[in-house]
């Protein structure tokens, strides 16, 4: 299977400079719940820069004298950013933290809590981004695309972080799953195999984006021929208002979280999707997860493989909320902030703003 480049919905081209550096890129976690103020665990609000979450956890765990696995965290954060996140450790080590000092880490706050923080215990993340070399006409284009994003949302591709510096971690992941590569470290194995799952999801999403673009220009019958789908497989798709077209058998979830259900009344569910009440999901292949039906399955099965890993459903389309912008004309800086649900990448917003090439 060859790699497909992510496809984006707008046929535009914006030129700007974005540096993934602590000066121009900030990420802050939004906790899933309020911390109780009592309990056997200590939650730290930590600011870090120029280091991975693993490196930050190692620095703190080594200082207090515990194993990294005794600490909790909600999500992994970008190395090349200023990130603010929440971690936990047993409260009995609180005094040892008083002497902790690190040039790349600052503990902003401490609070007691009843439970260890677990992966995924997030509502979402708040991003602050500075785009540079944005001149007048580009500023107007960014304003226009940002308005579209606010109204419509963006595709929920996995970001480059999942695929490594060269973008081919998924190759080793597939070799591991095929038994053609042996790696002892469990976390490394899981990361690489997860990269292959992400690769399959991204390829599926690109195929569905391609279909949605075709339906903007061609009839349902013509799009069926171009996509090599049976006659009437796309019935009821072109008339849908939203960009990302739903298919019979798509698996939807209430947004931003909720139960999974299959599309049966296409027009009705398309209206609910357009109103941001629900959103379609894509398959992360593996065991213990539900597959789509009907016409949706015809495309999904192209990117489904048997593997001895747990699978999941992931939102294919997400909403970008709390959008704020500020243009500093004398510096040609375009400052932007927004919130995304957990597990989503700021690069999806930036690539739509940039007009990343389709294909």
TrEMBL record:
Stored InterPro entries: PsdUridine_synth_cat_dom_sf (IPR020103), PsdUridine_synth_TruD (IPR001656), PsdUridine_synth_TruD_insert (IPR011760), TruD_catalytic (IPR042214), TruD_insert_sf (IPR043165), TruD_pseudoU_synthase (IPR050170)
Catalytic activity reported: uridine(13) in tRNA = pseudouridine(13) in tRNA
Any GO molecular function: tRNA pseudouridine(13) synthase activity
Origin superkingdom: Bacteria
Entry GO terms, CC: cytosol
Enzyme class: isomerase
Positions of the TRUD domain: 153-318
PROSITE patterns referenced in this protein's UniProt entry, alphabetically: TRUD (PS50984)
GO BP terms, alphabetized: tRNA pseudouridine synthesis
Enzyme Commission designation: 5.4.99.27
Pfam families, per database record: TruD
Keywords: Isomerase, tRNA processing
CDD domains the record matches: PseudoU_synth_EcTruD
Known role: Responsible for synthesis of pseudouridine from uracil-13 in transfer RNAs.
Similarity annotation: Belongs to the pseudouridine synthase TruD family.
Protein name: tRNA pseudouridine synthase D
Classification lineage: Bacteria, Pseudomonadati, Campylobacterota, Epsilonproteobacteria, Campylobacterales
């Amino acid at each position: 299977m060859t790699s497909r480049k992510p496809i984006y919905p707008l046929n535009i081209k914006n030129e700007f400079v974005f540096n993934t550096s602590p000066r121009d890129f900030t990420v802050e976690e939004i906790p899933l719940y309020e911390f109780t103020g009592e309990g056997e665990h200590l939650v730290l609000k930590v600011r870090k820069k120029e280091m991975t979450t693993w490196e930050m956890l190692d620095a703190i765990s080594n200082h207090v004298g515990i194993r990294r696995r005794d600490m909790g965290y909600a999500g992994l954060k970008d190395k090349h950013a200023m990130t603010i996140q929440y971690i936990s450790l047993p409260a009995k080590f609180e005094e040892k933290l008083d002497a902790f000092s690190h040039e790349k880490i600052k503990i902003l706050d401490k609070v007691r809590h009843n439970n260890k923080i677990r992966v995924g215990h997030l509502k979402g993340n708040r991003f602050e981004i500075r785009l540079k070399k944005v001149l007048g006409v580009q500023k107007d284009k960014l304003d226009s695309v940002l308005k579209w994003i606010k109204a419509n949302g963006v595709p929920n591709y996995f970001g480059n972080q999942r695929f490594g510096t060269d973008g081919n971690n998924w190759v080793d992941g597939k070799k591991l799953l095929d038994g053609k590569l042996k790696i002892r470290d469990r976390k490394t194995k899981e990361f690489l195999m997860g990269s292959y799952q992400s690769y399959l999801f991204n390829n599926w999403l690109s195929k569905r984006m391609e279909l949605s673009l075709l339906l903007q220009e061609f009839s349902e019958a013509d799009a069926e021929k171009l996509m090599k789908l049976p006659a009437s497989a796309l019935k009821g798709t072109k008339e849908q208002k939203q960009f990302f077209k739903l298919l019979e058998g798509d698996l939807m979830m209430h947004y931003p979280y909720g139960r999974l259900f299959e599309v049966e009344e296409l027009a009705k569910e398309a209206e609910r999707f357009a109103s941001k009440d629900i959103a379609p999901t894509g398959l992360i292949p593996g065991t213990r997860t539900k597959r789509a039906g009907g016409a949706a399955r015809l495309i999904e099965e192209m990117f489904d493989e048997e593997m001895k890993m747990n699978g999941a459903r992931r939102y294919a389309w997400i909403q970008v909320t709390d959008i704020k912008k500020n243009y500093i004309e004398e510096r040609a800086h375009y400052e932007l902030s927004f919130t995304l649900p957990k597990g989503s990448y700021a690069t999806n917003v930036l690539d739509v703003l940039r007009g990343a090439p389709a294909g």
